[in-house]
Amino acid sequence: xxxxxxxxxxxxxxxxxxxxxxxxxxxxxxxxxxxxxxxxxxxxxxxxxxxxxxxxxxxxxxxxxxxxxxxxxxxxxxxxxxxxxxxxxxxxxxxxxxxxxxxxxxxxxxxxxxxxxxxxxxxxxxxxxxxxxxxxxxxxxxxxxxxxxxxxxxxxxxxxxxxxxxxxxxxxxxxxxxxxxxxxxxxxxxxxxxxxxxxxxxxxx
Length: 205
Fold this sequence. Notes:
Blueprint (H helix, E strand, L loop, with lengths): L1 H11 L4 H12 L10 H11 L2 E4 L11 E4 L1 H11 L3 H4 L5 H5 L7 H31 L4 H32 L25 H6 L1
Antiparallel strand pairs: 1-2
């Protein structure tokens, strides 16, 4: 994933290693853990593959620093990394990084990947429901129950956020937007709202 981040930032402009490190922290550090010790080894690998190249800017007159820039081969590799298969694409630590570079994809490709991410989260939400049901039947403590509920609520929020992004892409493509899901009913214990039904479940009804 570091290679994707490097290529994505170098698509914006050429920069030297230290500047690239700062941009990784500034633009991506909030939602992605950056391994700075792996930066230069990754740059060397990309250079060896011909994805990036080093040069000395003509305007530099003192303390000449080598600057990295993306190549045509790197552009192709970047798009491949950005759209690679679902099994690796939707791991929790990888989706936000890919989303940061979605502007480089075609609208129909963005829509397809967003819908794939939503399907993954809906499956995760179903798993959360089953876990909550099992936890209530056992002797699970209140903190663990609260943690499961929190995870489900976070997933619900992410699905709602994705619905907004998907609707925007559909409108741009001339397709009808997503119909919002109904409000969540009360949980069986009366203290906490249950999670929203997934769109798949609603369609079955």
